[in-house]
Design goal:
alpha+beta; single chain; 17 strands; five-stranded mixed sheet; about 230 residues; Fumarylacetoacetate hydrolase, domain 2; ten-stranded mixed sheet
């Protein structure tokens, strides 16, 4: 059975829809500038994470590993972190919604197996989505941001225009090389920017934004990590 998400289309008129997730893939190393790819790989290597040389990278994800929640349950003392990505949700084989999300990853497990590390925690997305045709003509001017908190103070963690990441058309072309069958119900995560300062943040707060300065609107979502408190570790 597909996973069902309740979404709100933010267009000329808001509309609530149910989206059935049938397949999902987290793509990576999708920067248009190879130097940005190298920079992000160095950030991961600094944490002891072994990475392949595949460009782009593909990480299939079990279809129920996605949420619009503001709380993610995590294991105590685990090291996990998010990263901002644009997200495509396919209404049919050709048409799709756009939203903002986070590929939240267990970084300790990622040292041993990247694909498995993606299954531990869900992808997180905004409940609000845009119709791609509404932003297609000024896509490269859209801005993505991620925020963390350090000692309770919000800090900009990632920022960039979408002119630095593959456009949806190119991302879809790459995805079709590995994703079999119809894309209806598919969810594709875009890959991300390098981190400001280059150091992963493991604090429990994460916020993502997709900003349209042409139409003066924003998609945003924030979530916190909530360690389980009902089990005593020794």
């Amino acid at each position: 059975m597909p996973e069902q998400l309740e979404l709100v289309i933010d267009s000329k008129q808001e509309k609530i829809v149910t989206f059935e997730v049938k397949k999902m893939v987290n793509m990576g190393r999708t920067s248009r500038d190879p130097k940005d790819i190298i920079k992000h790989l160095e950030e991961l290597k600094a944490e002891g994470i072994t990475v392949s040389s595949d460009i782009p990278s593909y990480n299939p994800k079990i279809k129920d590993r996605i949420t619009t929640s503001n709380v993610i349950e995590v294991l105590p003392n685990s090291k996990s972190s998010g990263e901002v990505e644009y997200v495509l949700l396919f209404i049919n084989n050709n048409d799709f919604y756009v939203t903002i999300g986070s590929d939240h990853t267990d970084r300790e497990l990622e040292k041993y197996n990247v694909v498995l590390s993606k299954q531990i925690y869900p992808n997180v997305i905004s409940k609000k989505v845009w119709i791609y045709e509404d932003v297609k003509d000024h896509w490269d001017e859209l801005v993505m941001k991620a925020w963390v908190k350090e000692k309770g103070v919000a800090k900009l963690y990632q920022e960039g225009k979408l002119n630095t990441i593959l456009r949806p058309e190119e991302l879809i072309k790459k995805a079709r090389e590995r994703v079999l069958g119809d894309l209806t119900g598919a969810v594709i995560f875009s890959g991300t920017f390098p981190i400001i300062g280059g150091k992963l943040n493991y604090e429990p707060y994460f916020k993502v934004e997709l900003i349209d300065n042409i139409k003066h609107k924003t998609l945003a979502h924030e979530y916190i990590l909530e360690p389980i408190n009902w089990f005593v570790t020794k």
